[in-house]
Amino acid sequence: MANDRFFTFHNGVKIPDIGFGTWQIPNEEAYAAVTTALKNGYTHIDTALAYQNEENVGKAIRDFDISRENVFITSKLPAQTKGYDVTLEAFEETISNLGVEYLDLYLIHAPWPWDEIGKDCTESNIESWKAMEKLYKDGKIRAIGVSNFSESDIQALLDACDIVPMANQIPFYIGRDQAGLLQFCKHHNIIVEAYSPLATGQILDSAEIKEMAAKYSVTPAQLCIRYCLEHGTLPLPKSTNEARIIENSQLDFSISPEDVEKLDAFEDVRSK
């Protein structure tokens, strides 16, 4: 099950090797979805202030029969929130929404605002990161990281700050393996978390994916999620359907190196 295996950050904190993603799950549906995930063995829940569902994510965790220390909670600093004081304020809003005293992982959601992708926010990202370092040192967060950061975005933090990010959460799926960024992160002992491991569902109808999944007697979704693990990345599948939530964590098989290589050669379905 999802809570039997772990990745370990460079500070020694362990994170379950499959997370339950809640992106695009509305607040009114988040309670049932997270409850279903917890019921089926997930102990790693990923949310964000920008998802506008932290309240029901937190309520589901609090209402479920699981101790706080046995569930790993990730949230994120909104992409447009840049700077020291505003980062501290946003963090307080997040833990208030979730109804918890600390986070297991807190990420800068993106290096630039979503409506200004590519904007140079290096200096304000550094200020946000320094605020997160303070929260980490104060024991409010067990691990800190980034999301959607490129090599140069991360290098700017390495050059100016004290703590190397523990994680970088990026889109990673068959057809978009981001090999250069993955290698950079591995070199700096940064765990890569793979969001959209199913390419938002667009890859599941591929005849080649279906054929290879049948070879392993698994579903196309299971093959796609397992692919992320074969590359040493931590997948964050999302669903509100209980059967798929269960299926997405049943990954007790391996993809042969030859087949991984074939999958590496796929084109990005989302770029077509």
UniProtKB/TrEMBL annotation:
SUPFAM superfamilies: NAD(P)-linked oxidoreductase. InterPro entries: AKR, Aldo/ket_reductase_CS, NAD(P)_OxRdtase_dom_sf, NADP_OxRdtase_dom. The keyword Transferase does not apply. Keywords: NADP, Oxidoreductase. Pfam families: Aldo_ket_red (PF00248). Residues 18-266 form the NADP-dependent oxidoreductase domain. Belongs to the aldo/keto reductase family. This is Aldo/keto reductase. The lineage of its organism: Bacteria, Bacillati, Bacillota, Bacilli, Bacillales.
